[in-house]
Specification:
- The chain is α/β, with parallel strands linked by helices.
- Helices cover about 30% and strands about 20% of the residues.
- It is built from 13 helices and 20 strands.
- The strands form 6 sheets. Strands 4, 5, 6, 7, 8, 19 and 20 form a 7-stranded mixed sheet that branches. A 3-stranded antiparallel sheet has the order 1-2-3.
- Helix 6 crosses helix 10 and helix 10 packs across helix 11.
Length: about 450
């Protein structure tokens, strides 16, 4: 006799006789839809440490002030530095000789180590529990954190599960990176969950329901009609949300994504080489580009390169968090191919061309191998010609600029959240030193 549904923190209910005219005892005309429900949300304190910590003596790669197109040698590295953290924010960073450490602060000797901002994975499929039952811990979230990924943006996940996990992490009830997501994708092809966009009201409705659930972004995925995609772009701007599309390996759709003003493009451009028109399109529009070299279109993906060239099943940090059977199944019986047959090298060169023109490229590891995959993506960006600093910038500063969070994370500066990775070796000397993680 009555139907119930929720929209974010609101519970709605409605008698069937007010909606369906064919029900016995129904009204001659259905009532207008409800606009307000019963508020069932609640608030809880975000997890925040107390006290002060001083990390003393490390080389600090601050990433402060580095923009796309910045050249190597730009100020951004402080030798023998001290970082002071009070609560969860950085209050000071500078040369140890002049640093003022608050009395009572815990001093941690990090002499000889290198500190960089936590990695930002803007295309991180972190998975999630099923059947509506959420565990107290999640190995994909823990694995990412263990490998220095301190912020994850998942551009396709179950709406209820991912935002519940994000809130649990924020409340300190579950260990993981800062977690953001689009929730369920706005899919344009014929599926049971197709998101129909025939009018601007449709587009606004999709945006409002996703924002109510906790989304900062939506994923416009294979919306076939360009006018539908444009309406979703306009609605996202109206509600101050990001719109990250995917074109399903169609170059011309990717190009119109940029022309129509999407936040950026997810996944690689599906051609081995790009030319001046496409390079300048990304550079001048300031649209971001997340090439996900680990699953690049058009040829053999980068993931298989690392299975071929490294013994992944021997990685102790990975095995501490990732189920052994998953690692073995993906890595031990590996595809072998000539190194010049791996397509990610060409895709990475194209990403470098966009960066050189002033465009923005950011790291996305697609959840292929949680945590470790983010480092592979970082290393592959460098393989295409990016300097070590440019690759690190793509994995930190540019990622948060893409997500609109550069006021809080992505660089080591006073006032920013203290999301830091302490390394035993310097990734500016060898990019693969990004994996020498001592503390997060």
């Amino acid at each position: 006799a009555r139907v119930y549904w929720t929209l974010g923190p609101e519970l709605f209910s409605r008698e069937l006789t007010r909606t369906f005219t064919f029900v016995e005892g129904a009204q001659a005309k259905a009532d207008e839809p409800e606009t307000k429900g019963l508020q069932i949300g609640f608030t809880t304190a975000a997890d925040k440490p107390a006290g002060a910590v001083a990390l003393v003596g490390a080389r600090v790669i601050t990433m402060a002030g580095l923009k796309p197109g910045a050249i190597e040698g730009t100020p951004g590295v402080i030798e023998n530095a001290t970082i002071v953290i009070e609560g969860n924010r950085i209050t000071a960073v500078g040369a140890s000789s002049s640093a003022r450490v608050p009395s009572g602060a815990e001093r941690i000797d990090v002499k000889g180590k290198t500190i960089m901002p936590g990695l930002i994975d803007v295309h991180a499929h972190v998975g999630g529990e099923s059947s509506g039952l959420l565990a107290e811990s999640s190995w994909p979230l823990a694995a990412n954190l263990a490998f220095g990924v301190t912020t994850s943006h998942d551009p396709s996940n179950d709406t209820v599960t991912v935002f519940t996990n994000a809130e649990l992490v924020r409340a300190g009830m579950k260990l993981g990176p800062r977690l953001f997501s689009t929730g369920t994708i706005l899919y344009g092809a014929e599926t049971p969950f197709k998101a129909v966009v025939e009018s601007y009201d449709d587009a606004l409705s999709h945006m409002r329901r996703m924002k109510a659930a906790g989304a900062i972004s939506v994923k416009s995925y294979n919306q076939q009609r360009r006018d539908s995609r444009q309406m979703l772009v306009k609605a996202a701007r109206e509600l101050e949300m990001l719109n990250v599309p995917e074109g399903g390996s169609l170059l011309y759709m990717n190009q119109t994504h940029v022309l129509d003003g999407h936040t950026g493009v997810e996944h690689s451009l599906p051609v081995p080489r790009i030319y001046k028109d496409t390079i300048e399109l990304f550079a001048r529009s300031k649209a971001g580009y997340t090439p996900t070299l680990i699953v690049g279109y058009g040829g053999l993906s980068g993931e298989y390169y690392w299975y071929q060239t490294t013994n992944v099943w021997e990685n102790e940090r990975l095995l501490r968090f990732t189920p052994r059977e998953l690692v073995d199944a993906r890595s031990r019986r590996r595809t072998m191919a000539p190194l010049d047959d791996f397509n990610h090298f060409l895709l990475s060169k194209a990403a470098k061309q966009i960066v050189d023109a002033g465009g923005m490229v950011q790291l996305g590891a697609h959840g292929q191998l949680q945590g470790l995959g983010a480092h592979w993506e970082l290393w592959m960006l460098q393989q295409g010609g990016m300097s070590n600093m440019e690759a690190l910038r793509a994995g930190t500063n540019d990622g948060v600029r893409y997500l609109g969070m550069d006021g809080d994370i992505g660089s080591i500066e006073a006032g920013k959240l203290a999301d830091l990775v302490v390394l035993d070796a310097n990734p500016l000397e060898n990019i693969r030193h990004s994996e020498t993680i001592n503390m997060v």
